[in-house]
TrEMBL record:
Residues 21-41 are annotated as: Disordered. GO terms for cellular component: membrane. Residues 28-41 have a biased composition (Low complexity). InterPro entries: Flavodoxin/NO_synth, Flavoprotein-like_sf, Flavoprotein_WrbA-like, FMN_Rdtase-like_dom. This is Flavodoxin-like domain-containing protein. It comes from Diacronema lutheri. The lineage of its organism: Eukaryota, Haptista, Haptophyta, Pavlovophyceae, Pavlovales. NCBIfam families: flav_wrbA (TIGR01755), PRK03767.1 (NF002999). Pfam families: FMN_red. Belongs to the WrbA family. One of its GO terms (molecular function) is FMN binding. It comes from the Eukaryota. Residues 88-274 form the Flavodoxin-like domain.
Amino acid sequence: MGAACSRPADAAQAPELVTTAPPAHSNAGVPRAAPTAVPATSGVNARPAALAGEATPAPPAGNASNDERVVEAAAPVAPVVPHSPPRIAIIYYSTYGHIRLLALAVQAGVESAGGKADLLQCAETLPDGVLAKMGAPPKSDDPIVTTDVLAGYDGFLFGLPGRFGMFPAQFKTFWDSTGSLWTKGRLIGKPYGTFFSTGQQGGGQETLGLATVPQMAHHGMMYVPLGYQDPRVFSNSEVHGCSPYGAGTIAGGDGSRMPSELELGVACTQGASFARTAALLAAA
């Protein structure tokens, strides 16, 4: 997978969305009146004359009232520049590897936007004997996430396989151990997003995202969904697990279906978009 997010050919058939900010309004060449004292106008839609480009005489000295205000010339807004590349923790749990494949695509997206992303997996809680009966393959070599590293990240992306419409116990077990971070408010204001894997369409992709909100709200974290900024989320050309809540895949009841190119592409888009949002928040 390349560093940049690519779109499949059929994406051009999906409804196009405006994904870039509109050009800044330019007043070049338009004379602007000098700042003057302007009487307050009435009505919520009324504009002071000076803002409309009309010259307004200053009131007589010493006669200013509480109904008068000073309108200052608007200063240009400087662009927000992050102090450093945002650090994103991609925290996931994966039994059969579907979520990890999505996590790799999300990581590529973060890095394509100039961010840094680490893959961290939740510790397994099922006994080895149970995993063997489930036919689960060996775990990856990605580090196990611990509470002491979270405060050093600017944002988080959670990879969640569905368990009866909810996130897995392994994920909740980890977050139930973050009380020390909660008491110190170490995660307040940090953004997070979600991506998913379920057995079939309607298997709980949207409820998975919503289920994270109560616990993360107690940490003061902000949910940043994907939305429809990638037109492939609209696609009806094939079965896929993506939604406005995040990228996703449909694993099938037996886990035999792996993430498609469409699903991996949307995951890459989500990583890039989230990295840009995290950078703006980190620089604020």
